[in-house]
User: What shape does this take?
Amino acid sequence: MAQVRLLVGTRKGAFLLTSDGTRRDWKVDGPHFAGWEIMHVQGSSADSDRLYASQWTDWFGQLVQRSDDGGRSWEAVGNEFRYDGVPGTHQWYDGTPHPWEFKRVWRLAPHPGERDTVYAGVEDAALFRSMDGGVGWTELSGLRTHSTGSTWAPGAGGLCLHTILMDPANPLRMYVAISAAGAFRSDDGGERWEVATGGLRSDFLPDPDARVGHCVHKVAMHPSRPDTLFMQKHWHVCRSDDAGAHWTKVSGNLPSDFGFPIAVHAHEPETVYVVPILSDSVHYPPEGRLRVYRSRSGGNEWEPLTRGLPQQDCYVNILRDAMAVDSLERCGVYFGTTGGQVYASADEGDSWTAVAEHLPPVLSLEAQTLP
Amino acid sequence: MIRVELPTHLRNLAGVSGPVRVEVTGPATLVSVLEALEEAHPVLRGTIRPHDGEGRRPLLRFYAGRRDLSHETLDHPLPAEVVSGGEPLLVVGAIAGG
Assistant: This one.
């Protein structure tokens, strides 16, 4: 019977949660790397036992860990992320120039077909690639040296590259998203990049329709429709049907269109999940009610999913990397909270169960579907 | 042999349970000890000082013989009691909650 493995990064270590295909009973394994912030754990689709973890603290800096046995054992691989050339400056919060400085890895994205190739999205925003299983890292500097790069400014979490998407139909096409610069697309495997923010509007910018400066929180794609992208922005849920060239707001009847994660159903490319958060100033759910919202029409029409979720006195947040789906026949949906809960739905979001309740604050969550 | 006391997280990372003993050739300085430490435990590269070898990570301190060596240059000679092995070189994480 198929299995599901959740890869959970928390503020104090990594946890692996496993269940069989029923997704009723879960085994919690961890903490791995106890006491360290685990920004992200991700498995390779080319080899599901190969996992990568981004391990970090302010004290000791960045490490990248790799497992080749599904998380039973780990090996520290390369942790040198050196910007290409003289990095120059980006903008600081107040608009003044600030030196580009590597801080940490937000996102690890194994190549879907090449076992030893893995990408890293880092803060301050840049994209790195390793072609030897994470041992050596080289910057794809065409992104950071984009003509707009010196104008990028950080969001509250830092100037982080948090989204890396690869087009399964076109191995040369990639997308990245950076808070608070925007979304970018490459059509040559990551060497050159163009801004992919047409139609986005952000009222906190001096020019709300500017090409860059948008605080993109997360972008998601269904592999069968790689030109269609869904975005949770600082405010607004948006979609693009032309590979990011133009975006349309699809917030519709959401109680708030501020939020962090966004996910697409594994088998229904027009079914999308978000978790509305009241506002950028409070970062908790509206009315103290934790509700996932699902649209089966690609946006605009949203239904609240509440069964099994706390509907009073709930003031957690769900961070941008903390939501994922599995690919079992009935799609499972999962998310983690800053209160340390991991919620699982084995029925596409209709009902939810807390499968872990007292973890450290959850920074990231990925779901692996194992044979 | 020079004894180096590491913070818990770095001990775990290096897979050691107590002080690390390193031997240095030439003058015993912070940098020669760090080089010997990283040679013996490559996983520590980048965790105490940047990969380019310049300075130390900002939230780490170096103490030895009841003195704070954090603001000395890395080629500063270590105190005699550290060189003799009588006192350890302490690598200390700056105190902060969380």
